[in-house]
Amino acid sequence: MHSYLEFEKPVADIEGKIQELRALAADGEAVNVDDEIERLRSKSASTLKDIYGKLTPWQKTLVARHPDRPHAMDYIGGLIDDFTPLAGDRFFAEDHALIAGLGRFRGDAVAVLAQEKGSDTQARLKHNFGMARPEGYRKAVRIMDMAERFSLPVLSFVDTAGAYPGIGAEERGQAEAIARSTDRCLRLGVPTIALVIGEGGSGGAIAIATASKVLMLEHAIYSVISPEGAASILWRDSARAQDAATAMKITAQDLLQFGIIDGIVDEPVGGAHRGRETVINQAGDMIETHLKAMAGLSVEEIRHQRREKFLAIGRTLS
Hints:
The protein is α/β, with parallel strands linked by helices. The longest helix has 19 residues, at 34-52. Helix 9 (202-209) links the parallel strand 5 and strand 6 (213-217). The chain contains 14 helices and 8 strands. The chain starts with 8 loop residues before the first helix and ends in a 6-residue tail after the last helix.
């Protein structure tokens, strides 16, 4: 059973009728419902396609946050063989919101950074809803140091509403940890690819997404602040989040047009949660394409290209 978003109600109604017809057939009702079920299936698919063909930025935000959407560990499980997680920042503690480790991507050794939100209540609490603390970003720096030492590409799977804003995190230097992680991303002499799989929120995302190539799923979002936060600041009214989402240009399509990201991974009609394996494989194909394109570059060429990519942002806007 799918979890339906509010704007998907027409589809939910149709699929509810399909379930009712199936229940009638299962109860032995003397009526042939196969033709009607097939008609409703066709109508459901057509309605879903119409809805997803004209999503607003706010609706894309809701899809990016969908609870059934594949999370970072799904991508690691589907794309990374022999994954070995590495724990701790060697300063304070382990942070379960930011997964880090080593593995093999389609035969080649890589380092992996990933923000995991969790797929159920227990996992969400364990992973702090994907909001990393300073020790998470310091762990990321440790893994990036290791990746450069052994000439391993770094793959980042980004999915966070933002870094954790708690008092303890601030006391332990949250802003400094994010800044150092971002700086380490920029200085790496190995290819780096970041994929925004859901939310790419604020500095919490940028800390591991300042990559040679930044990719996004079709219905992911990437922004300096959440729409609700922007609406609270601009209009003192979080209920205007829909207006903020539109004004902020947070969708993958807008960001590709502005040159902030480098590619978009298509999602099935209805979002990534309706075709998890397909999305993960397509993401892997795009990652592989970009890694191959950077395979022959020297350390200085990699650093230069990444530097120029980020310096160019905003230069050509009219």
